[in-house]
Specification:
This protein is of the alpha+beta class and 379 residues long. The chain contains ten helices and 15 strands. Strand 10 and strand 11 form a beta hairpin.
Length: 379
Amino acid sequence: MGSSAVSYQSLAPSKGSDDELLTYSTKQALHGDSVDFDPEKHLAFKTPSEIITMPDIGYPEDTGVSPVAVSQPFQLFSDEAVEVMRESIFKPEVMENCKFSSNIAPCQLRGYATKYAPFIYDAWHNPKTLEIISVIAGIDLIPNMDLEIGHVNISVKSEQQTRDERAEIDKQKRYFADDEGIAGCPWEDDKPVVGWHTDSYPFVCVLMLSDCESMIGGETALRTANGDILKVRGPQRGRYITHQALRALGARERITMVTSFRPKSPFLADDSVLTSVRPISRLPDLYYEYSEYRLQILEERVRTKLHEIRSRHHAGKKIDTPALKRFLAEQELFVGSTNFELVEEGAVKVGILDELEFPDAGVGPFEEAERDPKRIRVV
C-alpha cells in the first residue's frame, strides 16, 4: 500500500542505530502536517490482484467474523500522502514522546496521531478510506482505537551498512546461480525481524512507507493450518493467523505503518485482546480507550435488548426467557474477557512480548524450492 508494497515489520537495529535514527529523522521531518487530508487527492487505490480466504490456508471459513485471510499488496495512498505521513512521524515531538521498544521490535511509534499527526489521523478515519479497507476485508470495519492508528515500526542503517549488504546480496546471487541452488537458499538461516506471534486485533492494514524497489525479503510469513509457510505482502488477519516478519535486505531503511481495525457493528464479535500491545503502551491511555469502546459496545447491545423486551411487553407478548438468558450469558463472557485484559499495571512486563516457538522462515528470493520441515510458498 502507498509505495505499492506491503510488509509487516522493520529490520533489527545495528550497533549505534539510535544515533543513526536521530540523525535520519531530523532530515526527514521537513513540513509535518502542513497539508490537510483530501481523499480526492490523497487516495490512489488500486485493487489487489488477489484476496486469500481462511479456507485457502486451511482454516474454517467461520474463523473470526470474516472469511478473508489476507490480500495481495495494493496501492492505497498517493505518493504525496505517503510523504506527508513520513514527515509527520519524524517530527521531533513524535520521536521524543511516542517512541517504544520491545524484545521483538526495537523502534516503534505509538499513540501519536491524535495529538501530533492530524493528517494521519484523518487519513485512517476518512469514510472513503474505511470503505476501501472494508470491501477488501469483507466486513465493515473501523479503527480499533485511536491509540492504534498508524503504529510505526522503524529501522535505519548507515549508508556503509547498506552498501555492504547489497554487495553481499550480489555475491550470494552469483553463487546461487553458479551452483544451481544445490547449496541452499541465500540468507535462509537469517533470523526474522519479529518472531512468530499473533496480533491483538482482528484486522490490520500495513502501509509501506519506504521505497522497497531494492529490498529482498521483508514479507510476512504466515503459518497455514497444516503448518506450511505462506509468504505474503498484504493486509491480514493477524489475530487469527500465527505469523512473523521476515528480514528485509538491501535497503537503508524499513518503515511500516500498521493500523488495526475491528467490526463496526456492535452486534458482531469483537475478539480484540491486549496481549501484544500492553507491554508497549502507556497503560492508562490504553486501558481508557479499550474500556471505553468495549463499554460502548455493551451499552448498545443492552439498549437494543431493552428496547426489544419493552416492545414485546407493550405488544402483549411474553418475554422470551431462553433468548434473554442466552443474551445475558454472552454479555457476561464479553465483560469477563474485557476485565481479563485489564492487567494490573504492576504485573505488566514493559517491553516483553511472548513469542511462539516455531522454526523460522528463511529470507531470500529463491525459496520456491522444497525445504525441511515445511515448504515455502511466495505469493
